[in-house]
């Protein structure tokens, strides 16, 4: 029973119990068509809700390991004060196809519009990759799911947005 209570508490704060790795870079936008991508070809299910996704430059690509990673980013500055307040979460779906890549990330039009007033600007961004630490929660929920199968549905919803799980 103690493990069940710990799982519930951890599930409520799992985003706060994340490791973060942050950096500064630049962003521009790119127009459709967005497929095929280097990550998942023509699959439409690779795109997150709201079309908040990016293609990344060589520095973030990591020989394809960047596919599926999620970053929280915000606009810091640019010409003519393009930044909107707030942050968004984007998913990496592609490698920048332009040589040289014009920025650290190339954002979908929807993602770029969420952080910038200007659709054709080059902006300075701060981005943070989230690495979710869910191993304890996974083990607890899998153990408890033997007696309580509805936890498996909760586990599936919880891990759907996790990009990397550290064991």
Can you give a write-up of this model?
The protein has 167 residues and is an alpha/beta fold. It folds into two domains: 40 residues, no CATH class; 113 residues, RlpA-like domain (Barwin-like endoglucanases, Beta Barrel). Helices cover 26% and strands 28% of the residues. A six-stranded mixed barrel has the order 1-5-2-4-3-6. The longest helix is centred in the first third of the chain and has 12 residues. It starts with a helix and ends in an 8-residue tail after the last helix. The C terminus is likely disordered. Keywords: Membrane, Signal, Transmembrane, Transmembrane helix. This is Expansin-like EG45 domain-containing protein. It comes from Nyssa sinensis.
What's the SSE blueprint?
Blueprint: H1 2-13, E1 19-30, E2 53-56, H2 58-61, E3 70-78, E4 88-95, E5 105-108, H3 109-115, E6 123-131, H4 135-144, H5 150-159
Parallel strand pairs: 1-5, 2-4
Antiparallel strand pairs: 1-6, 2-5, 3-4, 3-6
Helix pairs in contact: 1-4
User: How does the helix and strand content classify structurally?
Assistant: alpha/beta
> How far apart, in Å, are the first and last alpha carbons?
23 Å
| CATH domain class name of the largest domain | Mainly Beta
Q: Describe the global form.
A: globular
Largest sheet: 6 strands, mixed, barrel
Order of helices and strands: HEEHEEEHEHH
Radius of gyration: 18 Å
Give average pLDDT, whole number: 78
CATH fold name of the largest domain:
Barwin-like endoglucanases
Assembly state (oligomeric)? single chain
Please give the count of helices: 5
Query: How much of the residues is beta strand, in percent?
Result: 25-35%
Helix content: 25-40%
Transmembrane segments: 130-153
Pfam families: DPBB_1
Organism: Nyssa sinensis
Keywords: Membrane, Signal, Transmembrane, Transmembrane helix
């Amino acid at each position: 029973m103690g493990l069940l209570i710990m799982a519930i508490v951890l599930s409520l704060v799992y985003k706060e119990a994340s490791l973060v790795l942050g950096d500064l870079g630049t962003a521009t936008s790119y127009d459709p068509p967005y497929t095929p991508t280097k990550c998942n070809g023509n699959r439409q299910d690779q795109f997150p809700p709201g079309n908040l996704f990016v293609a990344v430059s060589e520095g973030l690509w990591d020989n394809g390991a960047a596919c599926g990673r999620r970053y929280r980013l915000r606009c810091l500055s640019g010409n003519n004060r393009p930044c909107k307040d707030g942050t968004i979460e984007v998913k990496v779906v592609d490698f920048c196809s332009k040589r040289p890549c014009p920025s650290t990330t190339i954002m979908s039009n929807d993602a770029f519009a969420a952080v910038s007033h200007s659709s054709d600007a080059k902006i300075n961004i701060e981005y943070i990759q989230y690495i979710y630490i869910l191993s304890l929660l996974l083990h607890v929920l899998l153990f408890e799911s033997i007696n309580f199968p509805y936890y498996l549905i909760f586990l599936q919803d919880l891990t759907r947005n996790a990009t990397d799980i550290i064991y």
